[in-house]
Amino acid sequence: MKDVLVNLNKEVGVKGSMIVTRDGVVVAQEILPPLNGDMVAAIDTDLGIPKGARVTVRAFGRSVTVRIIDVCACAGERLIDLTSGAFRRLAPLEAGVIPVTIELASRIPRGTLPPTDAETER
Length: 122
Known about the structure:
By secondary structure, this protein is an alpha+beta fold. It has helices spanning 2-8, 84-88, 117-121, and strands spanning 16-20, 26-31, 40-44, 54-59, 62-72, 80-82, 101-106.
């Protein structure tokens, strides 16, 4: 069972998995450290950038390169949701929402990861 969980955790963005009975009893678990310090992000599906791709985010003369691990329900002018560790490379957390530019750093080969929701809807 442990091997199955370890393999599940190798998927992009998965930081932990567990097997739970219908009664809520945890049979096995493999939980990795939280994402906060990781250089990862969720991105608006309208941008067409797939999970697994790397983007460089720039703000205030600083930049951070992050791996896209999820999509976000970003609204209005919001395009990307960074982990606190990635955000701190650009501005203090107290800054909240900041203006950024996003540049594709690298794509992943098609078929490497499951399609994003936006790709599935096409």
